[in-house]
Amino acid sequence: MLNLHRLSLQTLNLIRPPPPPPFLLLLQSSTISSTTHLHEQDIYDDPPFTPLKTPKSNNPNTPHKTLIPSQDQNFPLKSDLPFDFRYSYSETDPNVKPIGFREPPRYSPFGPGRIDREWNGVSAPAVGAVDSERLLEERESVLGEPLTEEEIEGLVERYRHSDCNRQINLGKGGVTHNLLDDIHNHWKRAEAVRIKCVGVPTLDMENVCFHLEDKTSGKIIYRCINILLLYRGRNYDPKNKPVIPLMLYKPLAPIYPKLVNNVADGLTFEETKEMRNKGLNSPPLMKLTRNGVYVNVVARVREAFETEEVVRLDCSHVGTSDCKKIGVKLRDLVPCIPILFKDEKIVLWRGKDTQQSQDNPKQ
């Protein structure tokens, strides 16, 4: 029996096929692994759905989307506001005419055909004559009787805190056109709005307050450094809100005359160069930060000019554009003459007229 069992095992070994070569085993294993990897990758990378491509219609009668307003959108808008529309009312001077434009004046920031005024590159002038007496009567009727001290204290206590949800941030653009619409939107549900001013406009807060009251017909009831409370009036009706067409984008600033001349007025070229070097080598009067509060800068510069002839301001991280805006405002408010803008530094000269008036005071 044992011999028969051995004989049967030998017979089976002879019948069994020989094992495949090693290279075939490697090829089969690599094929299986790559197939499994591709299958798993397809499972994980396959999106949950495939978006269907909508066929393009070849119908020539299909209307095309254009910027030209349709007849059912009530365009052009007609606004009864008596002033010229500008991007910024507090940071631009209508008396200074530009010498060029960075974009064609025919491109209106309000959009084509959206208002009944023509854009001239700087502003959209009002249409028709303005009756100042009628406007004054309407404003007084909206404001109503003056607020009592108790009412003012109640409004101030309600809206002056930093956690007030009726706040508008006024930045380097100043009192912009779209800001007026934001104020009226807040006035729909609140008697007053809190305005926080930062940046270049804080150099002249009187100018900011004037334009806020003039353009909105409101009343400033509280002012603390750079915080303002603008009251809407006793008889304000949100349903009779004025029509304020919005600007769709910020227009490019026009080109104005050169701010700093090669030779300052009243000095020779050598004297101007000497003044600039003296200002660069002098210690800075103060350091201005970006989007800071510059309420006391004008007073500090005036005080420094009582003893110094040249003053330097350090405007690190403020930006070249804001530096020039600060120089323009200081030129008009101090007054003084900017003689150099370099490496975010402003060098101001008090001028010969100021020096002569200090040398010969009136008795």
Automatic annotation (TrEMBL):
Name recorded for this polypeptide: CRM domain-containing protein
Source species taxonomy: Eukaryota, Viridiplantae, Streptophyta, Embryophyta, Tracheophyta
Keyword annotations from UniProtKB, A to Z: mRNA processing, mRNA splicing, Repeat, Ribonucleoprotein, RNA-binding, Transit peptide
Classification via SMART domains: CRS1_YhbY
Organism encoding this protein: Stephania japonica
Matching InterPro entries: CAF1P_plant (IPR044599), RNA-binding_CRM (IPR001890), YhbY-like_sf (IPR035920)
Compositional bias of kind Polar residues: 55-73
GO BP terms in the entry: Group II intron splicing; mRNA processing
One GO CC annotation: ribonucleoprotein complex
PANTHER family from the UniProt entry: CRS2-ASSOCIATED FACTOR 1, CHLOROPLASTIC, CRS2-ASSOCIATED FACTOR 2, MITOCHONDRIAL
Residue span of region Disordered: 37-73
